[in-house]
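[SOLVED] Need 3D model of a four-part complex

Original post:
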Amino acid sequence: MLLRHTPKEVKDRKALTINPAKTCQPIGAMYAALGIHGCLPHSHGSQGCCSYHRSTLTRHYKEPVMAGTSSFTEGASVFGGQSNLLQSFNNLFSIYDPDIVAVHTTCLSETIGDDVSQITQKAIDEGKIPAGKHVIYASTPSYVGSHVTGFSNMCASIAKYFPEKQDYELDQVNILPGWVEPSDMREIKRLMSEMHVPFVMFPDTSGVLDAPQTGFHQFYPKGGASVPDLKRSGASSFTFALGKFSSEAAGEELRKKCDVPYEVMEVPIGINATDRFLMKVSEVSGCPVPESINDERGRVVDIITDMQQYLHGKKVALFGDPDILIPLTEFLLAMDMKPVHIVSGTPGKYFMERMKEIMGDDFETGNVKNGPRADMFLLHQWIKNEPVDLIIGNTYGKYIARDENIPFVRMGFPILDRIGHSYFPVTGYAGAMRILDKMLGAIMDQMDREAPEEKFELVM
Amino acid sequence: MLLRHTPKEVKDRKALTINPAKTCQPIGAMYAALGIHGCLPHSHGSQGCCSYHRSTLTRHYKEPVMAGTSSFTEGASVFGGQSNLLQSFNNLFSIYDPDIVAVHTTCLSETIGDDVSQITQKAIDEGKIPAGKHVIYASTPSYVGSHVTGFSNMCASIAKYFPEKQDYELDQVNILPGWVEPSDMREIKRLMSEMHVPFVMFPDTSGVLDAPQTGFHQFYPKGGASVPDLKRSGASSFTFALGKFSSEAAGEELRKKCDVPYEVMEVPIGINATDRFLMKVSEVSGCPVPESINDERGRVVDIITDMQQYLHGKKVALFGDPDILIPLTEFLLAMDMKPVHIVSGTPGKYFMERMKEIMGDDFETGNVKNGPRADMFLLHQWIKNEPVDLIIGNTYGKYIARDENIPFVRMGFPILDRIGHSYFPVTGYAGAMRILDKMLGAIMDQMDREAPEEKFELVM
Amino acid sequence: MSFEKLDDTMMKTYPTKVYRKRKKAAMVNDPGEVKEIQANVRTIPGIITQRGCTYAGCKGVVLGPTRDIVNITHGPIGCGFYSWLTRRNQTRPENETSENFMTYCFSTDMQDSNIVFGGEKLLKDAIQEAYDLFHPKAIAIFSTCPVGLIGDDVHAVAREMKAQFGDCNVFGFSCEGYKGVSQSAGHHIANNQIFKHVIGNDDSRSDSKFRVNLLGEYNIGGDAFVLEELFEKCGIELVATFSGNSSIDHFANAHTADLNLIMCHRSINYVAEMMEVKFGVPWTKVNFIGAEQSAKSLRKVGAYFEDPQLISRIEEVIAEEMLKTDEAAAKYRPGTEGKTAMLFVGGSRAHHYQDLFAELGMKTLAAGYEFAHRDDYEGRRVLPSIKVDADSRNIEELHIEKDPERYSQALQDRKAALMEKGMEFSDYEGMMAQMEKGALVIDDISHYEMEKLVEVYKPDVFCAGIKEKYAVQKMGIPLKQLHSYDYGGPYAGFDGAVNFYKEIERMVNTNVWGLIKAPWSTQSAMSAKYARGKHAVASHT
Amino acid sequence: MSFEKLDDTMMKTYPTKVYRKRKKAAMVNDPGEVKEIQANVRTIPGIITQRGCTYAGCKGVVLGPTRDIVNITHGPIGCGFYSWLTRRNQTRPENETSENFMTYCFSTDMQDSNIVFGGEKLLKDAIQEAYDLFHPKAIAIFSTCPVGLIGDDVHAVAREMKAQFGDCNVFGFSCEGYKGVSQSAGHHIANNQIFKHVIGNDDSRSDSKFRVNLLGEYNIGGDAFVLEELFEKCGIELVATFSGNSSIDHFANAHTADLNLIMCHRSINYVAEMMEVKFGVPWTKVNFIGAEQSAKSLRKVGAYFEDPQLISRIEEVIAEEMLKTDEAAAKYRPGTEGKTAMLFVGGSRAHHYQDLFAELGMKTLAAGYEFAHRDDYEGRRVLPSIKVDADSRNIEELHIEKDPERYSQALQDRKAALMEKGMEFSDYEGMMAQMEKGALVIDDISHYEMEKLVEVYKPDVFCAGIKEKYAVQKMGIPLKQLHSYDYGGPYAGFDGAVNFYKEIERMVNTNVWGLIKAPWSTQSAMSAKYARGKHAVASHT
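Solution:
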């Protein structure tokens, strides 16, 4: 057994996290910053953080992930990181010529109390930031929240910095897609185009973290939200903040700064969440949902009705980020599946509240937990107590899946051992199809493998 | 073992086909006819043929497949099927109100020598075909060619019947997509739209055999090539006949009838075949390949370069239809994979010629065969003699895959035990991504399952 | 709902000739006064039908499930291809090396030259190759449409090859697709040849006391496995099952059984009849679909043998099994009670499965067979009055005589004695006598009629086959395949009943049909046009 | 290509200060006259670097591969998360129930309240919970950045808990990420604590004659498995490997070995030095990367023990193994001969792997380390001249003394005698002495320099890590990870060499790079504008 020390008996832990279902803020800030065109993320702290974040994002995307670091040593930790950051600005702009540097802090710089905004101001004052270049900054101490919080904080910083308040209103909306994959951002953009609704999306990592192979390393790939678009987002008529955990803060900043009304909606995963999103887009824009989208929807519903027998009643264990888990749980329930064990390391009361709403009675009978010690060790223990037919989560789920011989669908962050997540969306109706394809494949592969020979099916 | 009687030793067979890698003509004619909007296929023969074809198409698509049959009994077989067909026309048009009835023959009606064209003429003469309605017809004896030939014959009939010769030329091209999935037709149409090249595609089963769930059974789903479009195809400036086996005959008919020049090209599976197709589209239309397509291409090449270590040198066994196998083999070779065993039940010298061209030296060292007795029994024997890392083919491959414990990717016709083929294309660059996703998934799933615990990988 | 209205809705589009014919195949049932229904007549050309052909009935249904015969389809490739394992007849070979050809498809793959010059040589070569490769006990040849037309004599070829091999039984079937009006003709042909070439080849007899055959059980979804277990539990030996999980050796020995139990009357009654004439083995109709019927059928066997120990063992088993089914019914019935079903399938299933629905508290609104004869509807009592038409006449009726040495007068005496006591033999009451008054009976339902029926009645579940499945489901009604069980099952016996309860409860209560309508299809979505601040004001009507 | 030109291309964009500093870290090699290179200095802020932190070097590199220690990261969740199995240190527990915590990640998941009020209580509770759950032999605590800043005394906590448990060795590492300038500081810290808390805890001694430790071998890709097998074949006992496929029990017993063999000089030389001072165990540098070097290293062991039987056995093994590598080289070398490589990785791999490339007939154009010191480049002879800067001074230097009871004078005498005969001990010649004249050496290469280097030199393969991989590959050059082997390997020993030959041959000869350019990017595609009949006239230029 790969996880041979995990006992079936669940005991409360108050201090030890084992096999976390989250990581720390800065990587989220880095990911968000990569969704701005020409932006170079910068990690203000020890160089190890930056190295870890770049490595993990790289393994997830199999793409170059460029980011600077203030490379603290003990001296900087004692005397403050101002000098390191000033030096960094100088070097970053000289060597890599970014349009924007997006600084995020780390536990180190936060613990010693570096004031990045003041240091940045100093850099501007001292002329260290070239004209026309931008520095944005998010406070992302690793000991608060999770990687999702870090993403949210950087999004909020973008929303605070770029949008310009106008006295006119543009016939366009803002889409804050939340922490989803480049493929998902691409898919949401496609849906918006299909709806004929003009929009600004940020962050937008499509075209950045799924950059084509060209024989040339484009240091700033052509994707990402552009600065002019970001500026214009202040004149949009509405903001869709998708995913309360990752997008609400940015939506609120936009409202505060530019009076753009917003609504927090679920990331459009599954039928119902996508329905609600498109209904709202239609409502806000006056553009009807076109037949082409209606047909897409009909196709995925068709798969569900056709394949219902293989989905019905299947118990599922889920782990990952709240903005994904919430609509995913709703989707599974809509198909009569049974999400029985759910953990997310990301803290926040809303998660349990919303899950209770979605799950109804299943919430009481199921195991749902988020925040501290809502980890994969606990999830595994739950599974040992009530086995499931399917596990959905990031790559780390493969250990449990193998030990317990449970079909496994990779979804979430990070996925280190398969391709697909950056190219095939899980959002929208197309994404629902992908999820179905994956789930049915995993379940049926096991059936095919384990069926006695006389029960081996040709037709399914 | 599921196939416990298959010996390793290969002996020549001259009469017995075991586990065929093909089926008979009429099902192909039925499939092609479903790609015309408002068309009801009709099987002129025993009702069993129609039942078998409808069942197999239904199991493949999980969709209603409507078709009539002349329901021969012994009497009809002795005295000829004219009366049955005349009665059929009357009933089909009265009850199901199709715009077109597409008749195909069977071994039965062919053996007794029914002249469908004469019977149809009689029906017209007797006023049995309502005004404005069409009857087209293809000769598809089951003892000639294969299901692919049947498809080709019905396509040729469409091309003979509908297109109208004009003295002017339209700025549009014809696409004969060959026997591919609705998803593939949809994808090729998307590529054409992206190229801004107007086109007529036929047959086009998208929107027919992937019809949305609407709560209503639309007897003639809204997809399919329309009669006006088919008529206008005679004025197109060029015809792309994709897949020599399935589309050349129709291309030639269009040329003969309407002087539309054509080129037989490979079905755009994999990088090179898609490149050639788009280059030719660009050449013919004067429309450049847009950046968006270039980026798609770059993304799939990126996956290939990233994942090369898992693909390189992997031995593959393939079976299926020649128009698919040819570009698929080229694609695998381009990625340094080794297609070592290839069979197709469909006869035709071109297959071996083209494979030889594509495979070069690998043709001599590999096992390639098509036509009579090029069946899955032989393929399995070859595999027993030289094991492979992957099998690609239709659902029937699962028996070999399980017996020999070889990763298996479903591709071809029929796929009876998984979803996806009708929704996710294998053509174009998007299709190449899908193929990669599936192949890597299959290979890596086995690695994950069989690795000793100490070699179990987190990152791949 | 009156039949008149339905007739109107369901058939009004038909041309007059079609209407006249189809009208005779549809009627409102009255079990008290079973009327004549049109059945086993030609399908109307151009009508979209559920039916398949004679070849399918012969090769696919009856012989398909037997694992140790190399079944060679003589014809173009399609027929062999389509009958390659596309139904789910399960089989469990004795051990890992024993013969099992179920996963294989053998065909002569006839080409046009064979059509022109004849295919006998090809067939002989194919049989020789099969023999050389596999050395099977038996090779069967199935004729497809062109074979009959070009005049290949498959029986002569079979005789020749059989003589040549010496250790391999070779026999052929003239089951060309165009023979008869449906699969039913194929069943008859299969029955004949199995009887001629196999049954009676092995006279050995085990010493167990209660030896029966189960006829017309094809092990769809593992049904036969359940019944095998059930019989074993009761101490009854199953000599042969025709033909679920079967071996040709079982068939050869089948005539030594004491009783034939018939499940699917339509497909196999010929074998039972012939066995009775030749060997004196009585037959009685059973039904192992549904808990009640299973219990009843088991008791019938007990009653036949009149053995107190057997009878008490059977009662023990029934009591034990009924615990499971009662518990399951209690669990699932609240979800199914009062719901409705329609069944249009097969030659016995449309009848048998009504019992299972009844156990779920579900009403069968309409039912009909795909390839049955009048006796399957009206009961065997109408047999003498059935007119033999040209199509039926084409099917050989074997002339069977009493086997002077092997005929069991003892069994016939037992039968006579039991009949005195009221036990039924050689009879089948038919579906209509058991269906509710007012329910609809339609033979060989057309696709068109089916759609109308669903539209009007809106049943909670529809039972048919794969060709009907997705059309019905597109209408938002779940369809349960009763040919293949949708790759579920088993549904026979008590364990099967539990599975079926659960499955139907799932199907009639799933939420997924609720996903069909998009919210914008019922609500007017557009309200604002990029109007700021109005986002909270929804315009839902 | 001259360095001047490269300097120009590679560094001209740098601000002056950066340029001045980086210039000292890059030079053209002359093995005859090894020049001073700048190494182990601070990374310049804002420079995109390959380097990680002290925590990574301590927890990830040295302790990570040991399976039976519960390694608790004390800090916010990220550090523990990222060092959770993301390198491929393989381990093979003795049996199915023996301890293996490699697949687990343990963290105190510090929250802001812990930053404010201190995290010692949290840490104690976490240790207690780990103990209660797993009852491990040992628990190690790794400090992350904030721990040092807020002043948590992990060592005091460790002592307290160890005393409390009695049967569990608990020890901590002050390996905060900001200590030192790279992972290297973490190695040193790990060396110190392992030496203090573990090595020497078990004096038992097997009776085998040739007992060695292998230091600086981390079982990436199963390298240690290959070497274990090789040593066993030769009859040499591996007492402990630091730390590939290791158990804490091996460490405890390591001081009883007769010789320390050092693979990765950078990461582990401290342990070797300390063991020699305290226990008298001599050390010598070996290299099991490449067939020639593996043979040489084995012979070194033979020479050390001066046992004719051992020496002859070693020669037998080498002869046998070289058959495999020679055959493989003959097979793959035609595809690699004359091709070029660059290596920028680690603290020894950039050196060792040059031997493997040489065996493939490939030229190393440029190489450099990520976290090495000057001695790794220039050889240990420069040790006295290395200035200890503020960053290095932060790392504790343990004061080690001779263990009066366990110090082996005999081994030291043997060492002295062998040194007389010319055998090398306690030395490492460094990378530069072995590299070709004219090759480029660059320490701590920046991303910017790397891209320029690839652009200008266009090597056939580039060796580095995951952060570099896809940027280089976007340029059409394959990158081989030498941290994780791209999840391939093993590459150590003779079997490993065969794997590496094959892998590199694949990488430098694959066709896939040829797919990068779309045909329309080089040809003018558009010719006709829907012009009929012109389709045959291609306009390819």
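Edit: Chain B has a mean pLDDT of 97.
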